[in-house]
């Protein structure tokens, strides 16, 4: 049974405003295309060969469930200039609807075509399920690095939530490690202020993974702001969090700096390999604790299933 993920406050509202970009033709040909489509061509379309047709821009509607939602104006302007000069080389991918066509892949080209004020674009009409449309959109955007880490995390969450898939099932469909999916989903629990910084690219996915391990909301936001304003690296952020979390009255004689460093390296490797959050504490005499943390029953079930298989 698919596990529910508890989102951070306000994050669920982001899911409703997602968009998309281009789809990889190899993925379409090899995995997800129904080549027996009997779609009806309207009087406003013209065949161009190779299964492509020309369709009026006004007939194409964007799929509201596609993952990409941020488009950089400069990139769109550059692409629109290229389209004016050379036309659209790679066709858009669409499905036939009663009132026109719904876009599966190619929203960046669609937007740029509108900026270029051209009337028709080449498309390939496909017959796919809603789940296949979502998977195709995610695959292409991830392969082209078109999604920021928040959009990618939301896409994975929506795939799990809409189609009742587990992290392992999503990972298998997308050709990724389960730990990678888990790491992305963890950042959705961050405070909304931090999510905004990630979407504005003031912080990276590496920063987000580190911040997601913090417990206190106010402290997380404060540290994130310092990181963004000072343009700290991921390593510098880790050092800042250690300093913030270290009790002021901690006596130097109770510390074992060498062991602390080795334990922190172990924690990082465990989190990278499994996608789970670990806490490691050490003492001067060499004793310590290694703890796997989970914040809800769904995370516990993921850990349980992972441990039972390894």
Topology (elements, then pairings):
Layout: H1 25-32, E1 46-49, E2 52-56, E3 60-62, H2 73-86, E4 92-97, E5 100-105, H3 107-115, E6 120-125, H4 130-143, H5 149-163, H6 167-174, H7 178-186, H8 192-199, H9 205-211, H10 217-230, H11 234-245, H12 257-274, E7 277-282, E8 288-293, H13 297-309
Parallel strand pairs: 3-5, 4-6
Antiparallel strand pairs: 1-2, 2-6, 4-5, 7-8
Helix pairs in contact: 2-3, 4-5, 5-7, 6-7, 7-12
What does this 3D model show about the protein?
- This protein has 310 residues and is an alpha/beta fold.
- Among the domains are: 12-135, Conserved hypothetical protein from pyrococcus furiosus pfu- 392566-001, ParB domain, CATH 3.90.1530; 254-310.
- The protein has 13 helices and 8 strands.
- It has helices at 25-32, 73-86, 107-115, 130-143, 149-163, 167-174, 178-186, 192-199, 205-211, 217-230, 234-245, 257-274, 297-309; strands spanning 46-49, 52-56, 60-62, 92-97, 100-105, 120-125, 277-282, 288-293.
Work out the helicity level: 40-55%
The number of helical elements comes to 13
CATH class of the domain at 12-135: Alpha Beta
Q: In sequence order, what are the helices and strands, one letter per element?
A: HEEEHEEHEHHHHHHHHHEEH
Average pLDDT over all residues: 75
CATH topology descriptor of the domain at 12-135: Conserved hypothetical protein from pyrococcus furiosus pfu- 392566-001, ParB domain
What percentage of the residues does DSSP assign to strands (E)?
5-15%
- Outline the biggest β-sheet: 6 strands, mixed
Structural class: alpha/beta
């Amino acid at each position: 049974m698919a596990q529910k993920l508890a989102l951070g406050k306000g994050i669920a509202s982001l899911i409703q405003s997602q968009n998309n970009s281009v789809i990889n033709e190899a993925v379409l040909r090899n995995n997800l295309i129904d080549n027996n489509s009997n779609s009806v061509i309207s009087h406003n379309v013209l065949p161009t060969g190779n299964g492509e047709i020309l369709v009026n821009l006004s007939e194409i509607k964007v799929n509201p469930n596609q993952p990409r939602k941020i488009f950089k104006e400069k990139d769109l302007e550059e692409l629109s200039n290229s389209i004016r000069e050379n036309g659209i080389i790679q066709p858009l991918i669409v499905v036939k609807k009663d009132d026109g066509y719904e876009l599966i892949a190619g929203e960046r080209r669609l937007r740029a075509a509108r900026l270029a004020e051209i009337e028709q674009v080449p498309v390939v009409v496909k017959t796919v399920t809603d789940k296949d449309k979502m998977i195709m959109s995610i695959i292409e955007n991830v392969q082209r690095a078109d999604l920021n880490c928040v959009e990618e995390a939301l896409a994975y969450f929506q795939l799990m939530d809409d189609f009742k898939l587990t992290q392992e099932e999503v990972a298998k469909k997308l050709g990724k490690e389960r730990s990678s999916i888990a790491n992305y989903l963890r950042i959705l629990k961050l405070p909304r202020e931090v999510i905004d910084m990630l979407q504005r690219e003031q912080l990276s996915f590496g920063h987000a993974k580190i911040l997601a391990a913090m417990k206190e909301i106010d402290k997380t936001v404060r540290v994130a702001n310092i990181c963004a304003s000072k343009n700290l690296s991921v390593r510098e952020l880790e050092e800042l969090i250690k300093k913030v979390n270290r009790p002021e009255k901690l006596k130097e004689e109770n510390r074992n700096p060498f062991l602390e460093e080795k334990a922190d390296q172990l924690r990082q490797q465990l989190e990278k390999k499994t996608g789970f959050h670990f806490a490691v504490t050490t003492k001067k005499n060499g004793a310590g604790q290694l703890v796997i943390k989970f914040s809800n029953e769904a995370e516990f079930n993921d850990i349980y299933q992972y441990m039972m298989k390894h």
